[in-house]
Design brief:
single chain; mainly alpha; MetI-like fold
Length: about 220
């Protein structure tokens, strides 16, 4: 490796590592929001209650129809006008979590609808109510079916944390823009950023691969 590249690595790596830590934090918080909301939307979608089904469809289609950047702008710049003050970090993970909740909802709905209806009927014949059937019979099996696509959605979310930089969240891509703008070493900086994202995403890719092998054929 050339001497200048080693110098750049030593100089830039600590700053990019700080951004990578924030990227992981945004991802983790956003994933929690996306998973919880996605499960709620999915349960509403399969509830059989017309109002809940219609509301969930409207929410999912609306969220998917609005770019993530626009949602981040709305949360960070518009909500304060309505009295809701959020930091850039809070707006970033909430916006990403809300945006990805619709994709998680479809993943969970697919898992739930993949369960054999005969098992649901058998649970009802044993005296289980709808809620207990969903909790004890449907959801445990649905999560196994949904795990591979859930993992793929997690990888997409990890990469899309870069969009939080648009509202000044100091994550990996934000730090790289600052360094590149001040040093004009675009090739070095963004090559290092690509390596950092690979380091963050490869473990997720490996996990998804194992899940697909274990549950993909079922």
């Amino acid at each position: 490796m050339p001497a200048f590249a080693v110098k750049d690595l030593v100089e830039f790596a600590p700053l990019l590592a700080q951004g990578a830590v924030i990227t992981v934090e945004v991802f983790a918080c956003g994933l929690i929001v996306a998973t919880l909301l996605g499960l709620v939307w999915a349960l509403m979608r399969v509830s059989g209650v017309p109002v809940l089904v219609g509301l969930s469809k409207w929410l999912i289609n609306t969220i998917r129809g609005i770019p993530i950047l626009v949602q981040l702008f709305f949360i960070y710049f518009v909500l304060p006008d309505l009295g809701v003050q959020l930091t850039a970090f809070q707006a970033g993970f909430i916006g990403l979590g809300f945006a990805y909740s619709c994709y998680m909802a479809e993943v969970f709905r697919g898992g739930i609808e993949a369960i054999d209806p005969g098992q649901i009927e058998a649970a009802k014949s044993l005296g289980m109510g709808r809620a207990m059937t969903m909790w004890r019979v449907v959801l445990p099996q649905a999560f196994k079916v949904a795990l591979p696509p859930y993992g793929n959605t997690c990888i997409m979310l990890m990469k899309d944390t870069s969009q939080a930089s648009i509202i000044t969240v100091a994550e990996l891509s934000f730090q790289s823009k600052i360094i590149a703008a001040s040093t004009f070493k675009n090739a070095e900086v963004f090559t290092m950023v690509a390596v950092f994202y690979l380091i963050l995403c490869v473990p997720l890719i490996l996990i998804v691969g194992r899940l697909e092998k274990r549950f993909g054929r079922r």
